[in-house]
Amino acid sequence: MKTASAVELRVADEVWIVAALLHRDNAGQLDFTIDEIMERARRANLTGKLRPGLYAHVVQHCVANRAPNSGRYRMLTETGPGRRRLFRLGDSYHPQREGSKTVPEQEDLPEEYRPLLDWYRDWNSDSIEARIKNDPLLALRGDGKDLWADEPADEYVRRIREGWE
Question: What's the CA gap between 68 and 64, in Å, rounded?
Fold first, then answer.
């Protein structure tokens, strides 16, 4: 069994652990800045030092919706400039990252971080339908359909444009 004191973590797995810890400990927060992720990595001190490749993995190598540049993982999603969250089912990703690793293997994690895999399964199990339902833009789907329920769309548009000229 691996322990935190005898860790041989891959850098990508370290990024996943740190992001999972942030999400688990800050349930109401949707995403995190790159600086927040790096600070949490410093505090977690999973390998006894902050490895130089960690930043590149947070910025690029683990980010599913960015074009791959050597690393092709899908562990994080860029939610906005300089912001990241864990990758979830239904997230878009760059096609060259198809089939890439999204979570660490249980045996690759120190024992004390293995429960994060169960936490992640629960966190990620929100149905895509529920996320769509809670999306403010997608929730508008169908609004206004009654406006032209009794007339073809082209006739409706022609009618409301009358007198514009």
Answer: 8
Q: How far is CA 37 from the centre of its chain?
A: 13
- H or E element in which residue 32 lies: strand 32-33
Neighbours of 140 (CB within 10 A): 9
- Sheet containing strand 83-86, strands side by side: 32-33, 83-86, 76-80
**Coil, strand or helix at 57:** helix
Q: How far apart, in Å, are the Cα atoms of 83 and each of 33, 34, 79? A: 4, 6, 6
Which tens digits make up the pLDDT trace of 45-71? 999 999 999 999 999 999 999 999 888
For residue 103, give every residue at least 6 positions away whose Cβ sits within 8 Å of its Cβ, in sequence order, or none.
16, 75, 117, 120
SS3 category, 120: helix
CA–CA distance, 24 with 160 (Å, rounded to integer)? 51
Q: Is 37 buried (19+), middle (13-18) or exposed (0-12) by CB count in 10 A?
A: buried
Alpha carbon distance 48, 11 (integer Å): 13
**pTM, rounded to two decimals:** 0.75
Burial class (CB in 10 A: 0-12, 13-18, 19+), 134: exposed
